[in-house]
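A quick aside before the break. I want you to see a complete sequence-to-structure record at least once, exactly as it would be stored in a machine-readable document. Don't worry about memorizing anything.
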Amino acid sequence: MKKEYGLLGRNISYSFSEKYFNDRFGKEEIDAQYYTFDLKEINELKSLLEEKQLSGLNVTIPYKQDVFPFLDDLSQEVEEIGAVNVIKFEKDGTLSGHNSDYYGFKNSLLESVSELPKKALVLGTGGASKAVVKALKDLGIEWKYVSRSSKQDQLTYEDLNEEIIKEYHLIVNCSPVGTFPKVEECPNLPYKFLTDRHIMFDLIYNPEVTTFMQKGIEKGAKAINGYRMLILQAEKAWEIWNR
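That is the input. The structure line, written in tokens, reads:
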């Protein structure tokens, strides 16, 4: 019987995941199909699980934490990170939550830079940012969250000035700002203070070069998009589903 997999999220028509997995299934002659499940709210997952005989799901914005009540078990990395982007359908009928964003981001960063920066700004506080922060911790990189709201030990975009930008050489955009089709948008940073010592890592992969990245490139910064991270986390998801 053909196995069915899919991506769970909201407003995710831009996603490359469906094409990536179906191309892979075709090349490797795997009897499977991958779908995009665009849900307006997480409660729609209940009927989806009842209607479909699924073998695995990926989870993206904004449901990486909202899926927790639907899961029977959480992996150790999810316990540490606090976000799920892979759901495995176990043989006993239970659902387990896993995280492959951590693996994808960490290895993409290590592949892309020869020398790791000492400090990083993490833009956004959603599910993806939690995996990024775990990777930064494990790599020995100091980090600070940047958000629109003011909280203890967290910067706001208004707090960012020349001194902070010059201190934090890695800036990771974990927010959806700048994603297709709103490609002209970008996080509200003082880009004029960027230098050729900065690394602009955008988890977005569509468009290939975001406005956030372009503004860094114009200042001589290194820019990395989220495509390699996408591939790496997808490979890890496939490994989780099939082990």
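Two observations worth writing down. Residues 227-242 form the longest helix (16 residues). The chain has two domains: 3-98, 102-227. We'll return to this after the break.
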